[in-house]
């Protein structure tokens, strides 16, 4: 079982700030281009990071996680480039898919229940922020 370090809770919580602040700004005032771009780029960065951690899979012969991780990364990458108007919804769905792969399968290893609870909270807040951003850019 993989054990998270003690730094994960405060860092994970602080990592929500770049989701919450721009997501709220876009919802309140969709004309704030900096907030739209900040939320898009941060969401993409988190997706790239999470799928990249799967390369450290404790089961080196397991290819399912690598293939799904590459697919989710590419979906987010091309979504940001080709469909920026719907990227927030796409990113939210990708974050949910990443969470489900980590939670439901053993492809990326097993995690402690404390880490699983934290990941559920982080994913939920990130998804809500992305949905708020999408509502804002659609004229809410």
From TrEMBL:
<feature type="transmembrane region" description="Helical">
    <location>
        <begin position="7"/>
        <end position="28"/>
    </location>
</feature>
<dbReference type="InterPro" id="IPR021836">
    <property type="entry name" value="DUF3429"/>
</dbReference>
<keyword id="KW-0472">Membrane</keyword>
<dbReference type="Pfam" id="PF11911">
    <property type="entry name" value="DUF3429"/>
</dbReference>
<feature type="transmembrane region" description="Helical">
    <location>
        <begin position="121"/>
        <end position="139"/>
    </location>
</feature>
<protein>
    <recommendedName>
        <fullName>DUF3429 domain-containing protein</fullName>
    </recommendedName>
</protein>
<keyword id="KW-0812">Transmembrane</keyword>
<feature type="transmembrane region" description="Helical">
    <location>
        <begin position="34"/>
        <end position="56"/>
    </location>
</feature>
<feature type="transmembrane region" description="Helical">
    <location>
        <begin position="68"/>
        <end position="101"/>
    </location>
</feature>
<keyword id="KW-1133">Transmembrane helix</keyword>
